[in-house]
Amino acid sequence: MDEQERPPQHQEGERRMGGPRTEMPSLEELRGIAARKGQLKGLDIDLTMPEAWLNQYSLSPMFYTTRAYFVFTLALSSVVAWGAACWGYQIYVGMGVAGLRPPIFWGIYISTFVFWVGLSHSGTIVSSLLRLTKANWRRPVLRGAEAMTAFSLMVASLFPLIHIGRIWRVYYMFPLPNQRFLWPNYRSPLAWDMLAISVYLTASMIFLYTGLLPDVALARDLCPRGNWRKKYLTVLSLGWRGTHRQWHVYEKASTLLAVGVLLIAPSVHTIVAWDFSMSITPGWHTTIFGPYFVVGAIYSGVAGVISLMILLRWIFGLGQIIRTVHLYNLAKLELVMAVTWAYFYFVEFMTAWYAHNPVEFRIWEYQWERFPHLMIVMLGGTALAILMLSFHKVRTSPRLLFLITVLINVGMYIERYLIVIPVLTHRDNAYTWTDYTPSFVEISVAVGALAFFLLLYAVFSKLLPVVTVADIREGKIITGDVRIGNREVRVYADVEEPL
Amino acid sequence: MKSFNSNGDGKHKWTMVVDLDRCNGCGACTVACQAENNIAVVGEKLASEKRTMSWLRVERYFEGEWPDLRVIFLPMPCQQCGNAPCEPVCPVFATYRNPDGLNAMVYNRCVGVRFCGNNCPYGVRKFNWFRYKWEKPLQEQLNPDVSVREVGVMEKCTFCMQRIRRGKDAAKDEARDVRDGEVVTACAQSCPTGAIIFGDVKDPESRAAKLVKSKRRFRLLNEHGTEPSVVYLKGGA
């Protein structure tokens, strides 16, 4: 950041702490300060922390690694390896090792795919929405949310590959020029899906990387001499020096990207919904699926963001940056999504009831007969989420929030399972009605995917800055405490930059 | 867009007429189909998991309560829909409409996403879950006119396309039209009660063309707009 342009606010903050300290406090000390700042609970940013400390503190997840981290990563890696081995076994033997049988051709691979695509949605939506609305509390949330999108999309895009019968012929689905002029069938929702996912993955990776640039440059500058990270940080920072022009271009690019990503994200999940609603299968063939999936995706994704934020706080001791007020605001957003989601449940059941399709009725009965526990967790989970998130005390308690958001995502996984399976087991032709139980291989692969996501996140936190340092510092600059009458009020100054 | 024409653009419109009042559920059609089309025999264990590969199955439906019970048998091959739901959902054109108005499968093009199977309301599509083997000397009876399918591809009834091809070729060699009864599918040929009649409805003199005008006719699940090429007859003397 250009030293010349910095307004004097941060120096005032330092003065209030009793003058800037010359020597850097240790990480334990910084975390101790974080714990003692109880009185700052309601505020989104600590103005008293000197910039150098903030830098060190924000980058601490990268440079301080505990033994528990290695144990955790090793455990995750072995789960991932087991899942990959199961996939290899499936390729070698055939799809028959999955619990599928006609006419149930899609199983938990597809429901897991929809789950991960859904989870990926909120990351960029939350991030770009908060950027565009200039919500001042957004800053610490951005990176974690964007990284969640990128990683869950990577995991999601594995599932169509795991699911197809002949993985060695997967390139038939790509629009590759060939001698016979055979192109993919662009009437098929699966072809749209492939395009949508690849566009979204590309866009969200660029979005994540653009946001990372100033932070990578900061990490490069603060990287101790001889540290192995120095090399790739230098390459990745693309010669970022923090000049005025660079900041200007950066602001422009991130705003434009935020708009673009915000447009792409809902369309992607609508297309995932079309994988189902473009079929003529009763229970899938419904016009509500587009918005229903998008809302479900944001609902599950915001819960995912909250869970991950709380995990970052716990694991890396980032409580000073990711504060209760951030969780509180995200929880408010989640409450809105939960209510919207409940409305969509209602609308879905009402349209099914109004249409009076006997097959859809049979599917509804079957869900309650075969999966009463899952139905209760799914519907009850949403009801409980609305009820709990309505309370101020719950929204400010990380522990309760963590429990609820995990419960929400368990419910959303069940929801995806119940979208795929009962519809396929009970189709128009009553003679084909049957049952489905996921096989050991399928469950292993699904669990391996969860471990893979966590592993990607864990590795990311050691390689690149996991909190948006530049944005937080920008926040510090534009934030100030002003005394009005006998009250100290937090004020924000914002410069409208013409694009 | 000619190839998407629901009636095909060729000279023929192959149709199967199944007289349910004549069907006694013996299953000869299923066996004949199995032999003609190189369909894998999966064995007891997989069959108990409902993973049989038969392209044609005889469905049983029960009317009334025991002992006042009536069983209805319904042979279910691929319906060769005029407006097939399986075709548009395939991302690689592995299943498409051929000029005779049949849903053809290109096994070598299939990648196995199985959307076609999910979108078929009749549930007649089968998937190669494993690499099936023909134990010696069974490989000797494989039909050389029909390909043996690889693991991971979809397959289904083709209306014995190889027999249609043979009939058309013979007619072409003799510079005449295909005669009624010249092309017979394996199931129609083996049906002891003559419940399955196969023919070209574009030939107005064919037996099938006359039977599809019967008052007893109905088509399965046509409310989806699938326009099946299999016509069932029911409820007459």
Description of the molecule:
- The complex is a heterodimer of chains A (499) and B (237).
- Chain A has 499 residues and is mostly helical.
- Chain A has one domain: Formate dehydrogenase/DMSO reductase domain (Formate dehydrogenase/DMSO reductase fold).
- Helices cover 68% and strands 2% of the residues of chain A.
- Chain A has 17 helices and two strands.
- In chain A, strands 1-2 form a two-stranded antiparallel ribbon.
- In chain A, a hairpin with a 2-residue loop joins strand 1 (479-484) and strand 2.
- In chain A, helix 5 crosses helix 10 (289-316), helix 10 packs antiparallel against helix 11 (324-355) and helix 12 packs across helix 15.
- Chain B has 237 residues and is an alpha+beta fold.
- Chain B has a single domain, classed as Alpha-Beta Plaits (2-Layer Sandwich).
- Chain B contains seven helices and ten strands.
- Chain B has a four-stranded mixed β-sheet with strand order 8-1-10-9. In chain B, strands 2-3 form a two-stranded antiparallel sheet. A two-stranded antiparallel ribbon of chain B has the order 4-5.
- The relative contact order of chain B is 0.24.
- Mean pLDDT of chain B is 89; it is low at 1-8.
- Classes of the chains: A mainly alpha (499), B alpha+beta (237).
- The A-B interface holds A 93-96, 100-103, 105-106, 160, 163-166, 169-170, 172-173, 182, 184-185, 187-191, 194, 275, 278-281, 424, 427-429, 431-432, 434 and B 46, 49-51, 59-61, 74, 76, 85, 88-93, 109-115, 117-123, 125-131, 150-154, 220-221, 224, 226.
Approximately how much beta-strand content do the residues of chain B carry?
A: 15-25%
User: What count of helical segments of chain B does DSSP give?
Assistant: 7
Annotated CATH homologous superfamily of chain A: Formate dehydrogenase/DMSO reductase domain
Number of strands of chain A: 2
Give the helices and strands of chain B as they follow along the chain: EHHEEHEEHEEHHEHEE
Number of separate domains of chain A: 1
**Span between N and C termini of chain A?**
20 Å
| CATH architecture field of chain A | Up-down Bundle
Count of separate structural domains of chain B: 1
| CATH class term of chain B | Alpha Beta
What is the rounded Rg of chain A? 24 Å
List the total number of helices of chain A: 17
Helical content band of chain A:
55-70%
Overall geometry of chain B: globular
User: How many E-type strands of chain B?
Assistant: 10
What is the topology, as strand order, of the major beta sheet of chain B? Answer: 8-1-10-9
